[in-house]
Amino acid sequence: MVAPVDNLFADVRPPADGERFDTILRHKNLHVERIVSSSSITPQTYVQTQDEWVLLLQGEAMVTVAGESVSLKAGDHLFLPAGVSHTVERTSDGALWLAVHLHPSTL
C-alpha cells in the first residue's frame, strides 16, 4: 500500500507559544517529525535515549548542546547523539524543523 502524499509546508502556522510536534513517519526504530516553533518558548533540556538529527528548514534558533551555544539559521543541520544534553534556548516565530530520531534497535 502506498502512503498518501502530504506536504511538509502545509499548516506551518506556529502555535501561540511553545512548539508543535507533528509525526511524519514512524517505521521500526525510525521516527521523523516536523517541529513548528513560536518565538515564545520555555527552554527545556532534553537528554534522549535515541540519536537525533535535526534540520532547520526556516527561521533561526539558538541551541545549547552539551553546554556549548550553537546558533542555527535556515539550512543548518545538527547531529545530537543519544545521551547528550541539548536545550532549545530561543527560536524565531515560525521556525520550522525536520527531526529524525533513530531509536536503539529492539532486536
Secondary-structure element order, as H and E?
EEEEEEEEE
Any guess at the CATH architecture?
Sandwich
Q: Outline the biggest β-sheet.
A: 5 strands, antiparallel
Shape: globular
Q: Give the tally of structural domains.
A: 1
Number of helices: 0
Structural class by SSE content: mainly beta
| Beta-strand fraction estimate | over 45%
- What is the straight-line distance between the termini? 26 Å
**Percent range for helical residues?**
under 10%
Mean pLDDT: 95
- Briefly, what CATH class? Mainly Beta
**Uncertain regions spanning at least 5 consecutive residues:** none
Write a structural description:
This protein is mostly beta strands and 107 residues long. The protein has a single domain, classed as Jelly Rolls (Sandwich), CATH 2.60.120. Helices cover 0% and strands 53% of the residues. Strands 1-2-9-4-7 form a five-stranded antiparallel β-sheet, with no helix packed on it. Strands 3-8-5-6 form a four-stranded antiparallel β-sheet, with no helix packed on it. A hairpin with a 2-residue loop joins strand 5 and strand 6. The mean pLDDT is 95.
Q: How would you summarize the topology of this molecule?
A:
Blueprint: E1 19-27, E2 30-37, E3 45-46, E4 51-58, E5 60-65, E6 68-73, E7 77-80, E8 86-91, E9 95-102
Antiparallel strand pairs: 1-2, 2-9, 3-8, 4-7, 4-9, 5-6, 5-8
